[in-house]
Give the backbone structure.
Amino acid sequence: MSRIKLTDEDVALLNSKVGLHALLRTKKVNIQGALREARYLTALKQKQEELIKLHNWVIENNQKVVIIFEGRDAAGKGGAIRRLTEYINPRHFRIVALDIPSDDERKQWFFQRYINQLPKPGEIVFFDRSWYNRAVVEPVNKFCTEKEYQIFMSHVNDFEKMLIESDTHLIKFYFSINKEEQAKRFKEIKKNPLKRWKMTAVDEKAQELWDEYSGYKEKMFEKTNTEHAPWVIIDANEKSKARLGAIEHVLQTIPFK
């Protein structure tokens, strides 16, 4: 059996509270796995402390922040949002995950229901899927007409420019996973009675419609990856790296003091 070489830093980390928890939470001891988890949790805590400072700056300076999370089903958008919001002031942020539009909303200007959810001064709004439903999910699943899709694509860049010019910070994340990873996560969700509710009729067809999603996704990037509102593509095949990467980008992009 090969021996694992540990540095003094590794030993100190394993002996910390977070390291011991990672080491002892499973019956079979896995030192390398425990080190990976402890490093991730340590880095996450440090970044979450910085997020608190960022959020305080948003509140004190009446800033408005919109962070969009897009990506395929089971890409880890919700988990990333939970890590971003875990310790910030709950009175000054909202998570928006809109259901299918009502009859009245279908008759409104498409962007109206999203405008109603935009942040007030001193607030961050996290969109777990956003107006970009109309760029990918809706046309793939025939929830909108070709005309509605084309109108959206011709309006969205101007809409976002107006948003930014009204002193709103806008970040657009796309969480990217491969087809095999999505299939694996769907299988895990179906096996877990606490997560089965996450599977929708749209999710059930996601693998079958993989190529259609890819085609509309590429069109979305081509037309809406603008200088004023660029897409940030997060490799989400490994959840811990994706979460840290998203938090780091937020910390680097929003100019808090």
Remarks:
- The chain has a mean pLDDT of 94.
- The chain is about 50% helix and 10% strand.
- The longest strand covers residues 168-176.
- The radius of gyration is 20 Å.
